[in-house]
User: Fold this.
Amino acid sequence: MLADPPLVLQKRSDQLICDVKADIEKNRGWIGFDHFMNQALYTPDLGYYSGGMQKFGEDGDFVTAPMLGDFFAFALAGQCDEIFQQLEHGGKQPGSATLSSNREKVQLNDENVIGERIIIEFGAGDGQLVVGILRQMEKQDLRIDRYWIVETSDDLQHRQREAVNRSGLKYACKVSWLAQLPESGFEGVVIANELLDALPVKRFEIVENGKAMEMGVGIDEQGLTWKRSNHALADEYQARLSSHRLPVGYQSEIGIQAEVWVRSVGEKLKRGAMLLIDYGFPEREYYHVDRKEGTLMCHYRHQAHSDPFFYPGLQDITAHIDFSAVAAAGKEVGLTLSGYSPQGGFLLSLGILDYLAARQDSLSSDSKKYFELTRQIKMLTLPHEMGELFKVMVLSAGSLDQLTGFSLQDHGARL
Ligand SMILES: C[S@@+](CC[C@H](N)C(=O)[O-])C[C@H]1O[C@@H](n2cnc3c(N)ncnc32)[C@H](O)[C@@H]1O
Assistant:
């Protein structure tokens, strides 16, 4: 049973519901689920991400990997450094035989200089990952020239600025926020942790003739409700789904916006890599006949449930990622799959246990702290926690040698 929020927040959600209903009425009684999800998460001031809700951590609705200590940031900092080193010392640029060395800096455009080490994080939440990665880089004396953040929520951007300013890091001055990527492209390492699952999805239901009909939102006497449209999904999605022989009544999602995002960022990535971390599976598992209600999930006060119409604007709405579709979208714009692994294998490959062991001496008298660190590692890596469901995918522009993060597990062939 989900507890009702305080009245003041209920009123805010009512305002958003009024906006949604107005859209439904304007659209003759129906809007697509992707449209609703976009409104519920991103309507200025009222949407879950664009309003001022406390989303993350104990007092919020869910916890993400950067909030579980510094192991995640340690691993990502190491992986980014290895990618930068490969780019500097021998990776191949698409369509070019040579690489600019670290010392030969060439102006690519106003913002980006070839040879600079740039991380571009999309959807940086409350800023824990940027601070964690920069802290690791500073501590290990790893070079980073710029850390760009692209964040659509003004509220979260504000929290990220506060987190970076509070960090006291020398590297804090490397961070800047971009409204959009440079028009002419960029070089660097893109990081997106739990971004793709927050992008609007299309929902469908299989009907008697085998077609996938689009599901959306209508209005009944209770308020907002699921409503099936009488139009089928576009042919390319019907074709994708047809090989899975899904039964009548089967419902699921297609992460159209996630694919659009990968293509649009991938097109601009002239050289470098995209590190995508999220929960999901390959297409075969995603559209397994047993997963007949799809992957839609809502998070409210640390409870996961499946009702997207529960106080819109006050809860998170997500869907799992079809990583086969993400890899295919990358391929369409010339990216190469450099690795795909469960998160547990990725983090362990990058030495988080050695990082824990290195701190053991200083923790010998603090068993409580040691217990907390081992708890964090278990949460990040155990199969029934985040270790198996969460995956890490690297798509690269230009070829990379095998990355350390995929040395224990690389399931790319399963996509
Ligand atoms: C589920 S949160 C993940 C936050 C953070 N990466 C973490 O792991 O804690 C999704 C984030 O993506 C942001 N976001 C959503 N759409 C975006 C877009 N198109 N570009 C950049 N950020 C976006 C949200 O505002 C939010 O910060």
Remarks:
- The longest helix spans residues 7-26.
